[in-house]
Amino acid sequence: MAVEVVPYDRRYRAAFIELNLAWIEKHFRVEPHDEEVLYGVDDLVSAGAGVYLALDDGVPISTCMVMDLGGGEWELCKLCTAEGHRRRGAGTAVIRACMAYAREHGASRITIASNRILRDALRMYAREGFREVPVTGPMYDRVDIQLRLDL
Which domain, by its residues, includes 95? Predict the structure, then answer.
């Protein structure tokens, strides 16, 4: 599969929301902070967040967001890949685009809040250099692991 990674554009808003909701609902439950981030994506991008999508023949199949938390720390979030497109490189491609965006914008570290049941995602994060750290201030009930990459 040859995917094209593109930065967020408003025309991808519905796909960004739908892909993420489908993924969250499959594994967990949608929480208020999910809704704030998903439905507020345009405002977050305007405020400096980076969002990338992987397209397969022009159709969004994977998303990832990175947001500035202040003090050089950025959060990687809203990573998902559509059913039928997993394990083919789309997730890694959007993660790498977000990591590059954060570096370009002064990040000194990137954190991820996740859950241990997401074994494939955790292996992918480890391949990219993320390591487990103590969980601090999770915004979601589902968080039971936090990872960090020092840049």
Answer: 4-108
Q: Please provide the DSSP assignment of 119-149 as one string.
A: HHHHHHHHHTT-EEE---S-SSTT--EEEEE
pLDDT score recorded for residue 139: 75
Looking at the 3D structure of the chain, how many domains does it have? 1
Q: Is residue 103 part of a domain?
A: yes
Asked if residue 147 belongs to a domain, the reply is no
The CATH number of residue 42's host domain is 3.40.630.30
State the pTM of this model.
0.94
Q: Give me 113's structure tokens.
A: 């809040």
DSSP letters for the chain: ---EEEE--GGGHHHHHHHHHHHHHHHS---HHHHHHHHTHHHHHHTT-EEEEEEETTEEEEEEEEEEEETTEEEEEEEEE-TTSTTSSHHHHHHHHHHHHHHHTT-SEEEEEE-TT-HHHHHHHHHTT-EEE---S-SSTT--EEEEEE-
The ranges of the chain with pLDDT < 50 are none
62 within some domain: yes
**Selection from 62, 48, 76 nearest residue 15 by Cα:** 62
